[in-house]
Design a protein that fits this description.
Layout lengths: L2 E7 L2 E7 L2 H14 L3 H13 L4 H5 L21 H24 L9 H22 L10
Antiparallel strand pairs: 1-2
Helix pairs in contact: 4-5
Length: 145
C-alpha cells in the first residue's frame, strides 16, 4: 500500500508518495513506454483525485494515447563517426578560443588571482586536448586503410 504524505515547503504544498519497489518499477516502465515524465503522471493523477475522478474515468473519452515521443540520441539517426569526430574537434577548438579570449581580456590587477591561475590551467589543458584530437586518425574501414 503506498504511503502518501502532504507537506509544505517554503509555502508550497507538495505530495510525497512512497511506493513499494515493484510498484515503482511498474510506474517507471509505464512512463518510459508512454514517453512522459513521472512528475507529469503524478501531477495528472493528483489533479484527477482532487477533482473527484479516477484517472480511468477522465481518460475514457479521450481516445488513444499519443504516440511516444522520440527520446534524443538513442532513437535519432546518428552521424557518421568522422562527422562526429569533426564536430568534437570544432567544439574543443571553440572552447579553447573562448577561454583564451577570456584569459587575454583579464585585467592586469587580477594576474595573481586564483581565477587567473585556473584559467591558465584550463587553457593549457584545452590546448593539449585539441592537439590530441587533431592527432586522431581513425581507420577508414572496409579494407580502405
Amino acid at each position: 500500500m503506498p504511503e502518501v504524505e502532504v507537506r509544505v515547503s517554503k509555502g508550497n504544498p507538495f505530495v510525497a508518495v512512497r511506493l513499494p519497489p515493484l510498484a515503482m518499477e511498474a510506474v517507471q516502465r509505464a512512463c518510459r513506454d508512454q514517453g512522459i515524465p513521472i512528475s507529469e503522471l503524478v501531477r495528472t493523477a493528483l489533479q484527477e483525485y482532487l477533482a473527484g475522478r479516477t484517472p480511468t474515468e477522465s481518460l475514457a473519452g479521450s481516445g488513444p494515447l499519443p504516440p511516444r515521443a522520440s527520446r534524443g540520441r538513442a532513437s535519432a539517426k546518428r552521424s557518421s563517426r568522422p562527422a562526429r569526430l569533426q564536430r568534437l574537434q570544432e567544439e574543443a577548438h571553440d572552447l579553447l578560443d573562448d577561454y583564451a579570449a577570456w584569459q587575454e581580456a583579464m585585467p592586469e590587477n587580477l594576474e595573481g588571482s586564483p581565477t587567473t591561475k585556473r584559467l591558465q590551467d584550463t587553457v593549457a589543458t584545452l590546448e593539449q586536448v585539441c592537439d590530441l584530437l587533431d592527432a586522431v586518425e581513425p581507420p577508414r574501414g572496409y579494407g580502405r586503410d
